[in-house]
Amino acid sequence: xxxxGGEESPDVQGGAAAAKPSLSGSRATSAKPVWxxxxxxxxxxxxxxxxxxEKNIRSAISRYHRALLxxxxxxxxxxxxxxxxxxxxxxxxxxxQVLLRNTQVDCYxxxxxxxxxxxxxxxxxxxxxxxxxxxxRPGDVKALYRAGVATLELGDAQTAKQYLTQARREQPNxxxxxxxxxxxxxxxxxELQKEKAMYREMFFPA
Length: 206
Hints:
Helices cover 66% and strands 2% of the residues. It contains eight helices and two strands; from the N terminus they run ββαααααααα. The chain has a two-stranded antiparallel sheet with strand order 1-2. A hairpin with a 2-residue loop joins strand 1 (28-29) and strand 2. The chain is elongated and about 75 Å long.
């Protein structure tokens, strides 16, 4: 993994690296077996990574979204919320669940990286995607870094400091993590000084 704050690189773990087991026991979704859909999503992610490396951010985002759309119909958390509205489907195997979640995590991580490359950054969406990654993979240093940067830009220096402090524990030598952590601390200090000045004016007017 490259430094959290360095040049972004798409996360590639969890894709189609797993060998394809027998399709016996796979359930069908949209007339396709589970492993075929998982591999389709992994292929979309791989194509997204290639577009990202070519600086074609728009196409990369499109591929990651398409991969996540394929996986949405397999996600047991999503399907549990619509239970009873369609045919009951067998649970995913443990191996299928691992591949599903790894591909989801990589796509959300990579989407956040893509959004940070845009001229006008949607920091709320960057934070949303990064927090989804942290929900499934706590301690992911790239997600911690991006969540910290986005949260700081959205005005919450205290929470940003928490994310960036965790990222620094994982990568203490990363210059960008240290830089944004310093920004968060400086903003908190400035807010504290303003608060003190306000109270001085209230209780000790000139």
